[in-house]
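Subject: complex prediction, re-run

Hi both,

The earlier run crashed halfway through, so I resubmitted it with identical inputs.
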Amino acid sequence: MKREDLKLKGYIDEPVSDKLDIKNEILKLKKEKNAVILSHFYVKPELQDIADFVGDSLKLSQEAARTKADIIVFVGVHFMAETAKILSPDKKVLLPDLNAGCSLAESAPADKFEEFIKNYPDHIVINYVNTTAALKALSDVVVTSTNAKAIVDSFPEDQKIVFGPDKNLGNYINSITGRNMVLWDGACHVHEEFSVEEIVRLKKNIPKQRFWLIRNVKNQCLLLLIMWDLPHLC
Amino acid sequence: MLKFSQSDDAKKYIVATESGIIHQMKKASPDKEFIPAPPKDSTCGCSDCNYMKLNSMEKLYNCMKYELPEVTLDETLRKKAEKPIRKMLDISDKLGL
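This time it finished cleanly. Structure:
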């Protein structure tokens, strides 16, 4: 396969024989090349099972920062591999398919975001880690969903903050901290897809089920979560 | 969410995030049931990040064999982008996250 084709397709499109023990071959290559495989929670089960580390963005970035491997293979999406490269510039960072983007990262183009923050010169800029390197470069600190509240809390209460790109996570942090952070209007399309009506139906049918949501789903879901967190409704 | 699903004592859970995480939840608690929350316009009963699902064993194998595609960055941009990530990692370390 030619390099130009790779650019066009975004991944190596070479046929792999059905007879090949692909799992074994990957493990052999990993050993030969002193590579580490980091897989995100959201990839297919077999890709999680073959990884050296499986985790969320925070855990995987911590592993990328401390690894002694020569090659980091990031089985996730582009911004995560980029984060690994930012933290480990001397290592080769690979991503199996360059088309693996992120709708949230794409909802915040750096040029438009830069214009936006010019309106708030006395604010610090906190961005969710699901962003391009160009957007990170415009940030004072980044956060993941795991540490977002703790990091926002680490700033004085009167600190003015612009938070991006995820308005759902921003709204959630505002609601639990009582802050009034200025929010960029971005979102993840998967988290926007959940149907409140369907979730209510599911919950009603099976009332003993526990219910919880990732912190950056849309507001209506957040309100439901708060309602159901009340002991008499759980 | 994963930690919560391990320490909590219920047997059934509706999980309203990308469905891939359910694999780890099942592995950690094989006796519990995890139901993906339904999205709006689909009858499949799960919500998948299509970008994440572009990864496959075949692409991973080829990627490791040929060491491509590689992710590279302009050094000036990399340095600017590193500061806010290091700050996050420092605060997280201090807080034991």
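Residues 55-97 of chain B form one domain.

- K.
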